Amino acid sequence: MSEPLTRDWHHDYPLDLVRVLAPLRRGSGDPTTRVEPDALWWASTTSLGPATLRLRRASGGTVRASAWGPGAEAVLEGVPDLLGASDDASGFEPAHDVVTRGVKAANGLRLCASGRVWDVLVAAILEQKVTNREAWRSWRELCRRFGHPAPGPVEELWTVPDPQQVRQIRDWEWHRAGIDGARRRTLLAAASSARSLEKAVVLRGEEGRNLLRKIPGIGPWTAAEVAQRAWGDPDAVSVGDFHLPTIVGTALVGHPLDDEGMLDALSPYEGHRHRAVRYLAAAGVNRPRHGPRLPARDYRAF
């Protein structure tokens, strides 16, 4: 194993590493991430190949980053954006007490920007119209069976399969991973256009989301989920989410809403609507618990 490339990066704002990078983690068993008492690990794909990034706190507001693999230089270059350095909250003002409470609770919250569409797009497609439990099981299957073992010193860390690896997955293996035909077709369509989709990070905003939506099977929800993570889009609302209108409505107006009502309730935060949603989560707002949990389906049993 070669020695890692390293970089020390100083931040001048409160930084909660775990909170900032939480959107990139798909469940506690995510094979692409690892949280340790003194370090965070993230395995990713890059245009140059797989990379592993380790982040550790050093003294004086410094984060020490180490990276392994063909994509090591790329992930080190992206550390500031990954940790929220490009996140601009200018113009954001809490218009509700619950959002104010979230701002106070979320000291150190920044919107991360991974700089990579592909990794977060695969996960978002897997999460379409299924429970998190189902999606995260499929995510683990794909990464461990078809991704790259992450370069570096950590065992049992994997990257998401790159576009070429996804195109090589055989039909029965999709079924074994619990992925239905609709999501499989969307993943294959995205893999065929993966290089052009990375341009969304440069376009950003609505233009970037619209580029993603050119792929059949990618709608407003998936595009927003990618935008939130790939370029830290502060205004990307996950329209079409099963629970979000209920969460936002209950928090801001006292009752559940539909998508149109949710957008109306979030209108005071135009330009920062996703940021407002993150602060609601930081304030501890969640959907009311009524009735049994939706059971997870196992497509491998069909």
From TrEMBL:
Task: Tell me what reaction this enzyme catalyses.
Answer: Hydrolysis of alkylated DNA, releasing 3-methyladenine, 3-methylguanine, 7-methylguanine and 7-methyladenine
Q: Can the keyword DNA repair be found in this entry's annotation?
A: yes
Keywords, comma-separated and alphabetical: DNA damage, DNA repair
Would you say which domain of life the source belongs to? Bacteria
Enzyme Commission code: 3.2.2.21
Q: Does the keyword DNA repair apply?
A: yes
| Record-linked PANTHER family | DNA GLYCOSYLASE, DNA-3-METHYLADENINE GLYCOSYLASE
Can you name this protein? DNA-3-methyladenine glycosylase II
**UniProt source species:** Saccharopolyspora ipomoeae
